[in-house]
Amino acid sequence: MLLGSAIGLAFFFEDDVKQFAVKTINTYIKSEVKVGEIEFSFIKKFPSASLEFKNVLAYGTTESTNTDTLFQFGSIFMEFNIWSILNKNYTVNKLSFEEGAVNLLIDEDGKENFIIWKESEETTDVQTDLKLSLSSVHFENVAFQFENQIKQLFFSNYIHQLELNGAFTSNNYDLDFDTKFQLINYQQGSTTYVENRTVELSAVFKIDRTTNVYTIKNAQLTYDRLPFKIDGSIKNLESGMDLDLSIASDNVSIPAIIQLLPDEQKNTLTAYQIDGNALFNGIIKGLVTDSQSPSINFNFQVEKASFIHQESDVALHNISLNGSYDNGSENALRTSKLALENINAKFGKGSINGGLTLTDFNDPSYIFNGNLTLFLEELIPFMNVTALTDVKGQLDIHLQTKGRIAKLKEFTLDDWKKAQTKGEVVLTNVNFKLKDKPQEYKNISGNLELRNNDIKASNFKGQISRSDFNFNGTLNNLIGFLFSEEQSLKMDASLRSKRIFLDELLLSDKSTPTDSAYQLAFSERISFYLDCKIDSLSFSKFSFSSAQAFVSLQSKVLKASGVSFKTMQGEATGNLVVNTATKGKVVMTSEAQLKHISITDLFNDFGNFGQQTITAQNLKGIADCDIELYSEWTPQLILDKKSLEVHADLKIEKGELINFASLEALSDYIALSDLKHIKFATLSNQIIIKDERIFIPSFDINSSALNLKLEGSHSFENDINYKFQLLLNDILGNKAKAARKKQSEFGQIEDDGLGKTQLFIKMTGNLSDPKISYDTDALRSYWKEGLQNEKKVVKSMLKEEFGLFKKDTTLKSIPDRSTKKQTFEMEWDEEENQSRPKDVKETETEKKKSKKSGFGKFIDKIAQPNENEFEE
């Protein structure tokens, strides 16, 4: 019966209510509004009567937006008191907006698209029976968007529900405000401050329309699960607002705060489990206008928070701090200050304490003072550093720094370099390895004094694998070098070491030293000057002791000057240059002076100088040597043999030549047993290595096997070209007869006038199949030289006997050879011990010759020419 009455009343009053509603809308609203249909009901909003406008659409009011949607709703309800309807008193008590969207715009010219109400002058003479006496406004499922193109401000949200209740027509009333909405986006310029946050607000506003003051009592704001309490007042002014608000929270979840961060910053924290709560309170007070901002002052406190690296389970725990923020005397960013005081935390077995202050958020400055005790086995995993493994050790850090930050969100290397920094880092028992590298860094300790961007190291010592070091000096721009690939490091220091194994330091991977997996490269970003003293150093087979040098590195070129050390049972001095400036090539040059060096050790330690012709197994003796060396290598220290050049002035004493294949090829003429092990008192010569050949200038060997003169060349592929000058009586005498194979294949012979006959032999081809023949070219040169000497002898005789050529100072006195001239003797067998009887005539002749005057000697000389005088 009641339902039937409601339907009947609705039908009876529907036309009147519609007519008054449409008339009122047209009276007060100037924007074009389209309505799908209008329906009056006593049931839908019972116990109120309602007038529903369906599919309502309105356009913007500016010329540029009059075809754009200002708002649209699925339904707009006007609610009336039923008894007022019966008395034809059409007073609207409540408005409801459902399933819609609102788009508000202030364009670049400052024109607003939402001024839909007619000016008061336009409605003065209009009479209507529809009145507003609102006590409630309701929004449900409404998308709201606002854009201010002048201020580049954009704001959008989605209102799930908004309920406003109060005596809106009264000058003083309490407004109950209850809403839940999704804050989709808040953007200023190109910066997005808020995105997709859920907001709930429940508050009571005491409205005083005479003073335009809105007092807030016990407002409960939840911002993405973060609870806040708000009290205070807001006063509306023509130019803005005057705020006096207090905001507090007793239990703010730190994980919830992190969720408010932008995705980029939030994603960097995904490896960590963060827990804890914070409490804070603050005051916002002052004018809010286009040119003024209120004073903001907040205090906050964090206790028992934790920060856990989930993979390593290393934790920064028991975190506590006190903080404050205020925007200063000018209520602006440039006078703002953030202070974090009494920072305390436990980091595994270590601890952190200190304080941080930030000022001037337009041009931010900072001051930090802190003390840290850190254990590297906990710190490195916590910082997610993967380049280091097997890390252990302790760092004690005291740091004081102040400077400026170019961007508040990003602390850069340039900011650090411009800062004023001092402090100290003490390392104790630090151990680590570099990933995929074989070296072990062990027992590292020392003091590092921080001087802005530089570091002074004192007693910085430790081990790299089996090598030890003690380093003292200054490293300029170390921080920049470590954190930027464009920054360089300069170093001025001293290095002391008891033992260095260079093989291990140069290994580039986990191969053993026998794999020769070396990698020699210098960074163009590093330059240094080192005063080095090393008790012992070894590399491959090379080793030395009591070494010192001044080593510098500039532009990928290493220079070692004033080098001195003991090695190979002797001493060495010199200079070394290692140039890696050309990609893929290492150029080494050296000048060295070696004193009393074991020749065996010399060849052995230097890898036989890159050749196998004469090696450490072939030589013994004590050498003095001046060496100039040029060579090219790969970064893996593989020698380019074609590049090798060596100039060596060599003197060997107490020498031995053992199993030297080149001499053994003479075994057809000399006993092989004698050639296998030749001993000599002193050997002096210059050795030249170039174009993969060894060049040996002419020199004399006076040895246990024979006396000879030798010169020639020998390639790294054993191609040879040797020339020998021998004495015939050495070959035919006791030294060679036991193994003599040939007795008549020497070619021509030459008597030197002193009873010694010279043989000239050459050896060519390859050492595996040498070709031995008589050296006629050498013989011809010898005769030619002899002829010149004979001419001088004749002139000397004429000078002595007749006084001729007195002005020729090159002429020398003729020695008396009468006591030196001997009869040629040859022994063929061990049993043939008796010499040939002298010819009586020959003896008589000699006696007569000895009695002749100088002129007689001259005549005899002319009458008995030697073979030299008949050779061209």
What does this structure look like?
This protein has 872 residues and is of the alpha+beta class. Strand 37 (757-766) and strand 38 form a beta hairpin. Helix 13 (776-802) runs antiparallel to helix 15 (854-863). The radius of gyration is 54 Å and the shape is elongated.
The span between the termini is: 159 Å
The major beta sheet can be summarized as: 38 strands, mixed
- As residue ranges, the low-confidence spans are 1-13, 734-755, 817-872
Alpha-beta classification: alpha+beta
Principal-axis shape: elongated
Count of helix runs: 15
Strand content: over 45%
Radius of gyration: 54 Å
Q: Count of DSSP E strands?
A: 38
Keywords:
single chain; 872 residues; alpha+beta; 38-stranded mixed beta sheet; 38 strands; disordered N terminus; disordered C terminus
Summarize the helices and strands and which ones pair or pack.
Layout: H1 2-28, E1 33-41, E2 49-59, E3 69-80, H2 82-86, E4 90-106, E5 130-148, E6 153-165, E7 172-188, E8 191-208, E9 213-223, E10 226-236, E11 241-253, H3 254-259, H4 263-267, E12 272-288, E13 295-309, E14 314-326, E15 337-347, E16 350-359, E17 365-375, H5 376-382, E18 388-404, H6 413-418, E19 420-434, E20 440-451, E21 454-464, E22 467-476, H7 478-483, E23 489-497, E24 500-501, H8 502-506, E25 526-539, E26 542-554, E27 557-567, E28 570-579, E29 586-598, H9 599-605, E30 619-633, E31 639-658, H10 661-664, H11 672-676, E32 677-690, E33 693-702, E34 707-715, E35 719-727, H12 728-732, E36 750-751, E37 757-766, E38 769-774, H13 776-802, H14 840-851, H15 854-863
Parallel strand pairs: 4-5, 23-25, 24-25
Antiparallel strand pairs: 1-2, 2-3, 3-4, 5-6, 6-7, 7-8, 8-9, 9-10, 10-11, 11-12, 12-13, 13-14, 14-15, 15-16, 16-17, 17-18, 18-19, 19-20, 20-21, 21-22, 22-23, 25-26, 26-27, 27-28, 28-29, 29-30, 30-31, 31-32, 32-33, 33-34, 34-35, 35-37, 36-37, 37-38
